[in-house]
Predict the structure.
Amino acid sequence: MPLCFAVSGRFKILPMTLLFVVGVVLLATRAESRQAWRLAWPVIAVCALRLLYDIGNFLSHRLDWSTLDLPAQTVLFLGIAAVFTLPVKQRVVAIGFSLTAVLLGAASLYQRYVLGVDRPYGLNGGDWAAVEFAMYLLVLVLLAMLQALRPGISRGERWLHVAAMVVGLYGAVLTQSRGPLLSFAPVYLGLMLWYAMRSRHWRRVLLLFAVTVLGMLAVTATLHREMVERLTDVPAQIASFGNGGSDGGATAVGERLEMWRTAWQAFCEHPLAGIGLDQFGVYVREQVAMGQASPLIAKYVHPHSEYLESMVAGGVPALLVLLLFLAVPLGFFARHLGHPQEPVAAAAAAGVMVIGMYVLCAFGDNVFYRAMPQSLYLFLVSGLAVSIGRLRCSVPSR
C-alpha cells in the first residue's frame, strides 16, 4: 500500500478507492470497527477539522475548484482508516513497508549510478521532488528500524527490516536533502531512547546507534562529499544573503530566505484571513512585478515552509488548525508509548516518529502540498490511531 502513494494515476486511485469502499462497509456492518474508530476520535476529528477549514478557505476566497483536490483526499483516508480495524497480521504490513523501502531505495541508487541523476527523486515528481522523496524514504526507514527492534520476529524478517534500513537510508543520503536528513537525526535518537528505556537493552541500543552514525558519516564523508559541502556551505549562503550581495539570493538557502521574507510580508498584510489556498505563487509574481521581491523566487508557488504556507493561506486561524493537525495526533500516540501491551506501544512509537518527521521537516519545506507526502501522513496517522483503538478493544490492559 505505501508504494502506491509514491506513484500517480490509476495505480494509486484504484487501490485507494477499493480500500475506502471496504472501510465504509466495515463501519456500516461491524460494531467492533465502529468502536475502534470511535476510540481514535481525537485524530479523526482533527483531520476532519482541517478539511472543513480548507473548504471554508476555498469558499471565502472564491478559489478555483482545483484547490480542493488535495484536501478532499482526507475523506478517502478517514474511510480507509477503518480497514485497520480488521485483525490484519502486523508482521505482514511491516514486511510490506520494508519491501517498499528497499524498492524506493534501489530506485534512488539506479537513478544516481545508472541514469546519472544528481539528486534522485523517486518514481515520479521530477527534480523538485527530491526533498519529499527523501522524507518519504526516511519515514519508511524509521518504521523498518522499529520493526527490527521488536521482539518475537523471525531472523529472516529481522534481516529484511535491516536491509530496508540500509538501502533506504543510503537512498535518502543520495538525494542530498538537508532538511529531511537533519530532521531524521533527533527522531532516530528518540526511537533509540524509547526502545532502551522500554527494553533495558542499553548495550544493544548503543551499538546500533554507533553503527548507524558511523555508517552515515562514512558514506557522506567518503563517497558523497557533496552532502557535506551542502551542509558546510549554509553559513556562507546565509551571510551572502544578509550582506545583500548581487548573488545573495542565487542559492538554495538564499531563495528560501527570500521566500520566507515574502511569505511573512503576505501574512502581515492579511493576518486573519490570509490570501487563500495555493495563492502564494500569485502573490510572489505580483511582488516581483512591483520590484518588492527578488525575480529568483518568481518560479516558486510555495514558500518552502508548511507553517508559513498556512499563515499565508489563512492567517492565524490556519496556523492554529495546522498545529492542531500535528499536535493532537502526537499527543494521542504519546499517551500510549508506555502501554503494557507491546503491539499498542509499538504502534504509538510509529505514530510519534511519523509526526516527528513531518513536524521538523515542515520548518524548511512544504510537507502537505503534494499528494505523495500527504497521503503517507493521513494513511499512517489515521490508520495507526484506529489500529490502537482495535488493540485496546481486543486486548485487555494488565
Observations:
- The longest helix spans residues 306-334.
- Residues 28 and 369 are 32 Å apart (CA to CA).
- The chain has 16 helices and no strands.
- The chain has two domains: 2-231+307-394, 233-304.
